[in-house]
């Protein structure tokens, strides 16, 4: 039977199941297949903080969304076109996100009375498929006995029923791989390697995967398969990469390109622990990782290593930053290079450990006692975490200062294709250690001044133990300008407070001009953001432009100091929109610094901003600025084949 | 696999001294206490025990024969934590309680440094208690000097975690209801590899303990009884008084029977508690007296001896090295893991970085 193949330009699939159903792995494999196939893509893993929440319940649902396309995309997508639900709870938890007409594939095997009741269904929604007004009335639903067919497909391997049924995620992956013409070799290769030591499990998983594919090809339930052509991308070699992995690689690269040993002091915390795990594998690059007794000891050890001449790094999430604040202040006072990585999550307090948020910007700016400025750098996408880590290291080493690197849960766990850089393209970083003072003609050596400053950067010398003639004492008490001894002199304190601020401000001299994307040059509204909102903002902006309106976009990588031309850029627009996953922290800073009427677009749901909602907010502001009504839906050019990246 | 097996596997020699990897002074060159004295004015109260310890340390450091620039003193917050400013070495006066964590990073990053931590009873046992026990557990190569004056001095006289129950202070006007820590018992409980106690006023004993602590590879904890003349004067009077000290100090010498009070009293096992107690030697006989074994790998007896320290007014305390055992250090093993991996790598770092970034499932767009 030959089946119809339909062309699509993009698809958003969400795999959802119980925490133990292997949905993250399934989504990750589908993503890898799509990446190797050459689609552009973005992913959004979404899982509970509990390792195994009660089975079959809504709090226990784990999902993985992947958006893949034949052209460049910017987000993991607002709403899935396809939902794969492994049980009633997964169906119920995700149904509300689906647009009308979406495809729903469910494992009918798990729709038992008990599971239905756990999910809060009074009646089995599968029994009323096709009835107008029923739960699933608006969707194209395919009930498939995934578990039953999986057990049947793997029976020759003699597994227990429980083990056999566990391969059902691979059956589902096989089915979806068929539907979207994904290459199968990478997954078979992956399973072969992953289960190399347990042959029966390995064979069962491969058999389930193939059975899923074959089922799609033969069953009449699925009449159509789809083709999404590879996306044009700049020449180069690519891989799919998550933000945490890219950030860890960026730190390794910073060590190599500065010729400094990297020293990580860290305490495990979601969603930052992956960076500790990854760096602990790279000892061959001279990377030392210390799993400390607590957050404070993590940064303490990093500061000690930094004083010793290593690239000191500590990684954590918001609650950990709260604990490290005093030590960050010490690094400000002692003016030592230090990288502080904050993979932000929902707060306050323990908040939402596995969900994303960007509400730690003001904590990074001001969350210490006294005037304690630190540099702040924020990556904008998973792959960008690599470059941002290198940039943070450059600033820390060059200016002898702590640098806060603000990632977040969305880009940390999400992934995208990443062009692998040539090593020779990467910047080098010069530690410029202080050397022993020269002996004068009279045989005397000048007194070493640990707080003397480089006139260009205002950085003090990095004088490491073991260098004769540079013995000196540093610490948290105020230091005398130049000589660095304890000083309680009022004028000195005023001077030092200003010097520490001036040093951070000086970093702006080394920054490139802020890029503003304003294709028409006639935009009156500027949308400006920072961090992981880059994708959703870009997608929202695209939609507004597609509808025929002008809007400019800029994205801040450096939050402290701001780029020097930022004020001038802001002044050039009538309206400024600042979308953030917080209640307006960048807005507050921009308003305070530049006296502009920045308008916030603020959503704090623990999820990335939705491009469609953002587009509406931008359109409204464009309408106000231009004095014309803006209705996006009416103005979209129906002939366009370009993606709008919003819900259909 | 035991810890010793691990160190053998990593190719470490079984024994090293604490300063073995620290560069020594060139042959024939010597230093004096003056070389270790910074130009900073010492600002402790007149009569403070810290002066005596500073003098002893400045007098002792030249004996190590190490390059001054390879010695680092790290401190926390408190009166004693000003110590690094007065020594002409590298030093960091850090934040309250965190010195052991900073020293851990320093000592792990560099094998060629002699790392010292100066801390007090509040700094080490209250706000920094967690870092102290974990430093001891890890056995990082450093020496911790814990100045115990049983009071908060810098904040002007509140009770500390070593103050006796019932102590009347500014924050406990009707008496403290906190149970005090015994720092030596705590360190032994954390299985520290070197635990000793000495007194600020006995320079000879202090110096001998410092010397043994510096020679020990691993975390050495030295509790120093130190008098605060302003807020807790006389706390150690019985251990110092000409007429009382023989009756109060229980001297610990490895390989010697534990006797004091001119040989009249001795420490014997107490079958009733499983611990130890003080007995009249005349009654029990010298053979029944415990012979001190600081090298016993089991810390149980050392712990029992530490319990002979009076918990309230200090009328009795064992003084000396309670425990000194060989155990692989965290920093040596961490460096060995890194250097083994570095040595096994053939290509240049840039080449290997390229291979790392390009590993896994990749595709090429032309």
Strands ordered across the widest β-sheet of chain B: 2-1-3-4-6-5-11-7
CATH architecture of the largest domain in chain A: 3-Layer(aba) Sandwich
Question: If interface size is counted as residues with C-beta under 8 Å from the partner's C-beta, which chains form the largest one?
Answer: A-B, 71 and 66 residues
How many angstroms does the end-to-end distance of chain B come to? Answer: 52 Å
Question: Which secondary structure elements does this structure contain, and how are they paired or packed?
Answer:
The complex is a heterodimer of chains A (648) and B (366).
Chain A: E1 4-7, E2 10-18, H1 23-37, E3 40-46, E4 61-69, E5 82-85, H2 88-95, E6 103-107, H3 113-119, E7 140-144, H4 146-153, H5 161-165, H6 168-179, H7 185-194, H8 199-218, E8 224-227, E9 236-242, H9 243-258, E10 262-266, H10 273-279, E11 288-291, H11 295-307, E12 311-316, H12 318-334, E13 338-344, H13 361-366, E14 375-377, H14 384-399, E15 402-408, H15 409-413, E16 415-419, E17 473-475, H16 490-506, E18 516-517, E19 525-530, H17 534-546, E20 552-556, E21 558-560, H18 566-571, E22 575-580, H19 585-594, E23 598-602, H20 611-626, H21 632-635
Parallel strand pairs in A: 1-8, 2-5, 5-6, 6-7, 10-11, 10-12, 12-13, 13-15, 14-15, 19-20, 19-22, 22-23
Antiparallel strand pairs in A: 2-4, 3-4, 9-16, 14-21, 18-20
Chain B: H1 3-9, H2 49-64, E1 71-75, E2 90-93, H3 99-109, E3 114-120, H4 121-127, H5 129-138, E4 142-148, H6 183-189, E5 194-199, H7 203-215, E6 219-225, H8 237-240, H9 245-248, E7 249-252, E8 259-260, E9 265-270, E10 275-280, H10 281-284, H11 300-306, E11 317-324, H12 330-344, H13 349-357, E12 362-365
Parallel strand pairs in B: 1-2, 1-3, 3-4, 4-6, 5-6, 7-11
Antiparallel strand pairs in B: 5-11, 8-9, 9-10
């Amino acid at each position: 039977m030959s089946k119809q193949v339909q062309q699509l330009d993009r698809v958003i699939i969400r795999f959802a199941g119980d925490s133990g159903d292997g949905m993250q792995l399934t989504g990750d494999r589908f993503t890898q297949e799509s990446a190797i196939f050459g689609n552009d893509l973005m992913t959004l893993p979404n899982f509970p903080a509990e390792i195994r929440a009660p089975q079959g319940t809504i709090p226990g649902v784990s999902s993985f969304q992947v958006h893949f396309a034949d052209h460049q995309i910017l987000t993991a997508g607002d709403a899935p076109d396809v939902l794969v639900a492994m049980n009633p709870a997964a169906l119920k938890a995700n149904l509300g996100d689906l647009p009308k007409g979406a495809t729903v594939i469910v494992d009918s095997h798990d729709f038992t009375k008990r599971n239905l009741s756990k999910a809060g269904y009074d009646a089995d929604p599968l029994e009323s498929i096709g009835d107008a007004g029923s739960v699933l009335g608006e969707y194209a639903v395919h009930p498939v006995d995934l578990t039953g067919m999986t057990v049947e497909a793997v029976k020759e391997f003699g597994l227990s029923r429980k083990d056999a049924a566990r391969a059902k995620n691979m059956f589902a992956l096989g089915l979806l791989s068929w539907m979207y013409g994904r290459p199968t070799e990478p997954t078979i290769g992956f399973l072969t390697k992953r289960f190399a030591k347990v042959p029966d499990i390995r064979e069962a998983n491969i058999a389930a995967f193939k059975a899923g594919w074959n089922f799609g090809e033969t069953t009449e339930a699925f009449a159509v398969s789809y083709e999404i052509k590879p996306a044009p991308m700049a020449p180069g070699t690519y891989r799919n990469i998550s933000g945490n992995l890219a950030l860890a690689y960026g730190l390794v690269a910073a060590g190599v390109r500065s010729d400094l040993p990297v020293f990580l002091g860290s305490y495990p915390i979601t969603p930052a622990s992956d960076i500790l795990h990854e760096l602990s594998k790279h000892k061959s690059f001279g990377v030392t990782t210390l799993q400390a007794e607590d957050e404070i000891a993590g940064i303490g050890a990093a500061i000690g290593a930094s004083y010793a001449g290593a690239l000191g790094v500590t990684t954590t999430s918001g609650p950990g930053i709260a604990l490290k604040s005093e030590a960050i202040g010490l690094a400000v006072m002692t003016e030592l290079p230090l990288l502080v990585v904050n993979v932000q999550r929902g707060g306050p307090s323990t908040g939402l450990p596995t969900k994303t948020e960007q509400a730690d910007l003001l904590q990074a700016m001001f969350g210490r006692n006294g005037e304690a400025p630190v540099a702040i750098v924020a990556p904008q996408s998973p792959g960008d975490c690599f470059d941002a880590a290198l940039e943070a290291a450059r600033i820390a080493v060059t200016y002898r200062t702590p640098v806060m690197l603000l990632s977040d849960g969305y880009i940390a766990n999400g992934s995208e294709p990443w062009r692998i850089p040539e090593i020779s393209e990467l910047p080098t970083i010069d530690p410029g250690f202080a050397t022993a003072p020269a002996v004068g003609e009279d045989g005397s050596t000048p007194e070493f001044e640990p707080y003397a400053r480089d006139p260009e950067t205002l950085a003090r010398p990095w004088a490491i133990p073991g260098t004769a003639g540079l013995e000196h004492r540093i610490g948290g008490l105020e230091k005398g300008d130049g000589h660095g001894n304890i000083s309680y002199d009022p004028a000195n304190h005023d001077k030092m407070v200003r010097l520490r601020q001036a040093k951070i401000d000086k970093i702006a001299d080394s920054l490139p001009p802020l890029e503003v994307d304003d294709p028409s040059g006639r935009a009156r509204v500027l949308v400006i953001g920072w961090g992981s909102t880059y994708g959703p903002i870009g997608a929202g902006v695209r939609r507004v432009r597609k509808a025929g309106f002008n809007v400019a976009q800029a994205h801040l990588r450096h939050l402290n100091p701001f780029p020097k031309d930022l004020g001038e850029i802001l002044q050039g627009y009538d309206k400024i929109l600042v979308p953030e996953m917080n209640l307006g922290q960048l807005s507050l800073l921009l308003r305070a610094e530049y006296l502009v009427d920045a308008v916030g677009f603020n959503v704090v749901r623990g999820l990335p901003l939705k491009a469609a909602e953002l587009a509406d907010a931008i359109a409204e502001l464009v309408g106000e600025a231009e004095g014309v009504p803006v209705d996006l839906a009416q103005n979209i050019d129906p002939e366009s084949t370009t993606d709008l990246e919003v819900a259909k | 696999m035991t810890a010793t097996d691990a160190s053998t596997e990593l190719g470490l020699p079984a024994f090293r001294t604490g300063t073995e990897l620290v560069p020594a002074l060139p042959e024939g060159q010597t230093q004096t206490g003056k070389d270790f004295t910074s130009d900073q004015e010492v600002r402790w109260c007149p009569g403070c025990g810290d002066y005596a310890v500073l003098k002893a340390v400045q007098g002792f450091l030249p004996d190590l024969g190490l390059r001054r620039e390879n010695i680092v003193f790290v401190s926390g917050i408190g009166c004693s934590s000003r110590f690094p400013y007065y020594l002409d070495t590298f030093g960091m006066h850090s934040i309250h309680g965190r010195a052991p964590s900073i020293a851990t990073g320093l000592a792990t990053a560099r094998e060629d440094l002699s790392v010292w931590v100066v801390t007090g009873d509040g700094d080490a046992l209250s706000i920094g208690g967690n870092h102290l026990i974990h430093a001891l557990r890890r056995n990082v190569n450093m020496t911790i000097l814990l100045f115990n004056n049983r009071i908060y001095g810098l904040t002007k006289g509140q009770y500390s975690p070593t103050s006796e129950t019932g102590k009347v202070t500014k924050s406990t006007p009707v008496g403290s209801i906190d149970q005090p820590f015994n720092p030596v018992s705590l360190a032994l409980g954390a299985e520290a590899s070197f635990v000793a106690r000495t007194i600020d006023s006995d320079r000879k004993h202090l110096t001998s303990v410092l010397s043994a602590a510096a020679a020990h590879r691993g975390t050495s904890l030295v509790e120093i009884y130190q008098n605060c003349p302003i807020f807790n004067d006389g706390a150690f009077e019985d251990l110092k008084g000409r007429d009382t000290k023989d009756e109060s100090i229980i001297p610990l010498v490895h390989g010697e029977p534990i006797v004091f009070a001119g040989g009249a009293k001795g420490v014997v096992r107490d079958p009733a508690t499983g611990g130890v107690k003080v007995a009249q030697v005349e009654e029990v006989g010298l053979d029944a007296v415990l012979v001190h074994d600081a090298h016993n790998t089991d810390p149980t007896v050392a712990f029992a001896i530490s319990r002979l320290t009076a918990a309230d007014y200090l009328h009795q305390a064992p003084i000396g090295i309670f425990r000194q055992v060989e155990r692989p250090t965290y920093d040596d093993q961490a460096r060995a893991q890194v250097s083994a991996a570095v040595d096994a790598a053939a290509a240049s770092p840039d080449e290997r970085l390229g291979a790392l970034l390009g590993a896994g499932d990749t595709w090429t767009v032309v």
